[in-house]
Specification:
heterodimer; A: Aldehyde Oxidoreductase, domain 4; 7-stranded mixed beta sheet; 6-stranded mixed beta sheet; 28 strands; globular; B: alpha+beta; Ubiquitin-like (UB roll); DNA polymerase, domain 1; 2 domains; 5-stranded mixed beta sheet; 14% strand
Chain lengths: 759, 178
């Protein structure tokens, strides 16, 4: 028998790579339709107020302009996420700056833009709530009596007794602000009314069925009359999880009213100003330890700013809270997490989904603890990091696939942790001595170097019973020529999802991955296999596809009464099957893994089917006079279960690492009167190729028995680790430990000055 | 907007005549009037480089160039890197090495890299050289490592031949066609 080439573990060419390097890949803004109008959005300039009047400039030529307001919405004026509090268009009350009030469209994009400016909305301003502190004070009430959208408590053991028994108790408060996803392709959608009285919406998105669900409600149509199709998507990072329901609804409303196709594509300014961002957070951590560094009590208090509407905040909060105590064994834990309402644009999904905030805080805190105890940060983590059999704060026993200790060791080894930790300290001390003696380095620059470490975990798939509720369905069918075709609603957004699908299916069918077709994510053609979020695509949906492929192989081998023998044979047999037996379609629905139990009421049980683990060592050079921090190198080991495609998985890790470094050092959303002040790429700065350090990735494979070929989720994990390591590296270089990110030159210089005064 | 003017230039070796307002962005002229949507808009203010094209051999942000400035110019866009269905070495190393993820920055990055490799023809540019050349092209997916590696691998494979070129074609012939 011919032994087919293995497909899993091999870096096959990216499925859609050819189209992307030739410019043939069509993104939403590349599409044009006959009679198409361009839609624009009239937005609020204040963060809170009551709409009194809408005026249309009588001097403007309104010919050919389509105008749609909340009265025109055929269904309900609501964007369904977790709750139903967000309107598609503000009807009466404004709850955040740049909230959509009215839509205009014209065949000429410039006329549409001019029409937008010819609308004047008179708003009676109300006092806004713009910070976590203001929200908690509840002086102005936006939501209930306390402005708290959601509160979660997780506890195990007796935390007060733990603190009582501790030799050392350390407490700190950590702050992190908004972060913009900054996919390079802005949000965009095209909607078109069909002759049958339905609507088709195409665009840049992560979750076709989320948009579908939202449109059914807005338009009051039966589900079969609404069709949502993904176009090639230029990055998402969570930013195209919930917002496409809003912009898709806007395009659909304009198309519904005008009867013509309508394209709504944001420019960068509108995208930054109006769409979702990472939740800002204030996190208090208190830990009790034995003198040797053994953790015996952890108390974490998390407050996140959810913005003006609930959107996805309860789920972001939940994930952040479950991970808040870090991947550390600790008998006594108490976690309290709240998400508050403010008058900023709704915070939403961004790679990591609440975890980067809590892991940044916990890791910064543990680095401070190590300094206070005089322990090596690596040794402190080794002592407490999870091993198989440990129990998490929700009472989940980690039964398998715990690469925690291994990622620590591999990171330290590859980065030369111990040697560099000593060497940089020695060199920094020598430089300081020389400068005191009046001897400066060439150029007079006072440079210091440091290395910092951080560690994190990330649960793959939806939290708690989320996957059970999603009830995902995936399918595999035989296309007419006898090639297998994948039918799922999960989308390629750069991560390589569809390439991985072709590998998993190809491996099980014994055919080369390029033979496997992948259907366009189109709700009219593919089953609902859930959203492309939560590091679930390879592990959960890939797992379902792998089962589909087993099923298909079984059917075909029973049909020919012999084993299949690779690509050409597969196609021959498949064609014969189609001719004699008719269509073949194999479906698999998500089944809860045995032994996984979760209670939403008590927040006890298995929060995730399994966790992935990552450690990172970041080396920096700090200029003491300018406060600039240059990252010299990042070294990270990540436990991914099994690398289905080594190039793609390291690509995920490198990209996530750089987003994490941007979060730690550069990216700061600044606000003025409740509006984003730096809504341009000129002043919202993300890392360039020059800012980016060489990133060295070590893949650790501790297989998870429930994932396809042992794979587990990795999409978000790399974003969770860098921030804590950067803060520690800066502290190692300068002796100054910041409790707020990003570590901008301004913030660092102020801290250095304060430290100098204190001496 | 001011009345339209007629402009001619070559794009990817092909002569084009368009009638457009003189201040229309070259980006929009390429996308709308020439139907070449491979060139992308990411920010509209010259920060992201997604709209990079070569104008007379120089990499520019086409969102900042008024059409009138392109009159008579030789323009190269991503669509001009492959010879019919045959990918250039640079395009192939991007696919093999993970240099493209979501792909929206890829056209601009490939064009910038092509210009770099033409400047450094005959040697492999150092890693910091590649990073400096790409500093005007933002990518949010890759962390840049695989892009930098793909550019250097392409330089190594092409040697002294044209960097964007496909194997087995003479330099002179292709150069003349551009």
């Amino acid at each position: 028998m011919l032994r087919p080439e293995p497909a899993v573990g091999v870096s096959v060419p990216k499925h859609e790579g050819h189209d992307k390097v030739t410019g043939r890949a069509l993104y939403v803004d590349d599409l044009r339709m006959a009679g198409m109008l361009h839609g624009r959005t009239v937005r609020s300039s204040v963060p809170r107020g009551i709409i009194r009047r809408i005026e249309f400039d009588p001097a403007f030529d309104w010919g050919g302009v389509v105008i749609a307001g909340h009265q025109d919405i055929p269904g309900e004026n609501v964007v369904v996420h977790v709750l139903e509090d967000q309107p598609l268009l503000a009807a009466h009350e404004i709850r955040h700056a740049d909230e959509a009030i009215l839509l205009v469209a014209h065949a000429d994009a410039e006329r549409a833009e001019a029409a937008r400016h010819a609308v004047r909305v008179e708003v009676e301003p109300l006092e806004p709530v713009l910070t976590i502190e203001d929200a908690l004070s509840a002086r102005v009430k936006l939501w209930g009596e306390d402005n708290v959208f959601k509160e979660i408590r997780i506890a195990c053991g007796d935390v007060e007794a733990g603190f009582g028994a501790a030799d050392v108790v350390v407490e700190g408060v950590y702050h992190c602000g908004h972060q913009e996803q900054l996919y390079i392709e802005n949000n965009g959608m095209i909607a078109e009314r069909t002759a049958e009285g339905g609507i088709v919406v195409r665009g840049s998105l992560q979750c076709p069925y989320f948009v579908h669900h939202a449109l059914v409600r807005m338009l009051g149509l039966p589900p079969e009359k609404v069709r949502v199709i993904q176009t090639v998507t230029g990055g998402g990072f969570g930013g195209k999880e919930d917002y496409p329901s809003v912009i898709g609804g806007h395009a659909a409303l304009l198309a519904w009213k005008s009867g013509r196709p309508v394209k709504v594509v944001y420019d960068r300014l509108e995208d930054i100003a109006a769409t979702t961002k990472r939740h800002p957070a204030r996190i208090r951590v208190r830990t009790g330890l034995k003198r040797d560094g053994t953790l015996i009590a952890t108390e974490v208090d998390v407050v996140m700013d959810g913005g003006a509407y609930v959107t996805l905040s309860p789920v972001v909060l939940s994930r952040g809270a479950i991970h808040a105590a870090g991947p550390y064994r600790c008998p006594n834990v108490s976690i309290r997490a709240r998400c508050v309402a403010t008058n900023t644009p709704p915070s939403g999904a961004f790679r990591g989904f609440g975890v980067p905030q809590t892991q940044y805080a916990m890791e910064s805190h543990l680095n401070r603890v190590a300094a206070e105890l005089g322990l090596d940060p690596l040794a402190l983590r080794r002592r407490n990091a999870y091993v198989v059999g440990d129990v998490t704060p929700t009472g989940q026993t980690l039964r398998e696939s715990v690469g925690a200790q291994e990622v620590l060791e591999r990171t330290a080894e590859r980065a030369g942790w111990a040697e560099k930790r000593r060497r940089y300290a020695r060199e920094n001390a020598a430089a300081a001595r020389a400068e005191r003696a009046g001897r400066f380095a060439p150029g007079g620059r006072r440079l210091r170097r440091g290395i910092g470490l951080a560690f994190a975990w990330h649960g793959a798939g939806f939290t708690g019973s989320g996957e059970v509720r999603l009830n995902s369905l995936a399918a595999l069918e035989l296309a007419p020529g006898g090639r297998p075709r994948v039918l799922v609603a999960n989308v390629e957004i750069g991560q390589g999802a569809i390439t991985v699908f072709t590998q998993l299916v190809g491996e099980r069918l014994g055919v080369p991955p390029p033979l496997v077709l992948v259907e366009t994510p189109d709700t009219g053609l593919v089953p609902n296999s859930g959203p492309t979020v939560a590091s679930r695509t390879t592990m959960v949906v890939g797992g379902l596809l792998e089962q589909c492929a087993r099923g298909m192989r079984e059917r075909l081998e029973l049909f020919v009464e012999r084993p299949l023998r690779g690509g050409p044979d597969f196609q021959r047999v498949a064609r014969r099957f189609l001719a004699r037996r008719g269509p073949l379609r194999v479906e698999r629905r998500y089944q809860k893994p045995p032994g996984v139990e979760w209670s939403d009421e008590t927040y006890r049980g298995d929060a995730y089917a399994c966790f992935s683990y990552a450690a990172i060592a970041v080396e920096v050079e700090v200029d003491l006079d300018t406060g600039e921090v240059r990252v010299l190198r990042a070294t990270t080991a990540q436990d991914v279960g099994r690398a289905i495609h080594p190039v793609l998985v390291t690509g995920q890790i490198e990209g996530g690492t750089l987003q994490g470094l941007g979060y730690a050092l550069l990216e700061e959303v600044r606000w003025k009167d409740g509006r984003v002040w730096n809504y341009q790429l000129t002043n919202y700065v993300i890392p360039t190729a020059v800012d980016a350090p060489p990133i060295e990735v070590v893949i650790v494979e501790c297989p998870y028995s429930g994932g396809p070929f042992g794979a587990k989720g990795v999409g978000e994990l790399p974003m969770d680790v860098p921030a804590g390591a950067v803060v520690e590296a800066v502290a190692h270089a300068t002796g100054v430990r910041l409790d707020e990110i990003p570590v901008t030159p301004e913030r660092l210089l102020r801290a250095l000055a304060r430290a100098a005064e204190a001496r | 907007m001011s009345p339209a003017v007629t402009l001619s230039f070559t794009v990817n070796g092909r002569r084009r005549r368009v009638r457009v307002p003189p201040m229309k962005r070259l980006l929009d002229v390429l996308r709308e009037d020439c139907g070449l949507t491979g060139t992308k808009e990411g920010c509209g203010e010259g920060e992201c480089g997604a709209c990079t094209v070569l104008v007379n051999g120089l990499a520019v942000n086409s969102c900042l160039v008024p059409a009138v400035q392109a009159g008579g110019a030789r323009i190269l866009t991503v669509e001009g890197l492959a010879r019919r269905s045959r990918l250039s070495v640079l395009q192939r190393t991007f696919i093999e090495g993970g240099g493209t993820q979501c792909g929206i920055c890829t056209p601009g990055i490939l064009v910038t890299a092509y210009a770099l490799l033409r400047r450094t023809r005959g040697r492999v540019p150092r890693e910091d050289e590649v990073r400096a050349a790409l500093a005007g092209n933002l990518c949010r997916c890759t962390g840049y490592q695989k892009i930098v590696d793909a550019v250097r691998v392409a330089a190594r494979r092409t040697g002294t031949r044209r960097p964007g070129g496909t194997r087995g074609r003479s330099r002179g012939k292709k150069g003349a066609r551009r």
